[in-house]
Amino acid sequence: VGRALREAREERGLTLRQAAEQSGGRFKPSVVGGYERAERSVSLLRFCELADFYGVPPERLLARALEILGPEARPERVLDLARLERQQVEGDLPR
Prior knowledge:
By secondary structure, the chain is mostly helical. The chain contains 6 helices and no strands.
């Protein structure tokens, strides 16, 4: 996610300091830099705010972050819906 955020900022030609200035101080350089270096976790709301500030739809920026990760970092999850339904019927899971 950090790399995608950095690329979006750099595509706008902004330094961390310029991003802070142009956002009216909403995005502090040390915080955004921490997101970009993966030293800080970014909330979904903050991620969307940064995406909007950079002029990139949040879903496109998230897709870019997932591209950067590559498929090996995103293990496939398979849900056995028939098994889940059986467990609900048998009372093992709340409905």
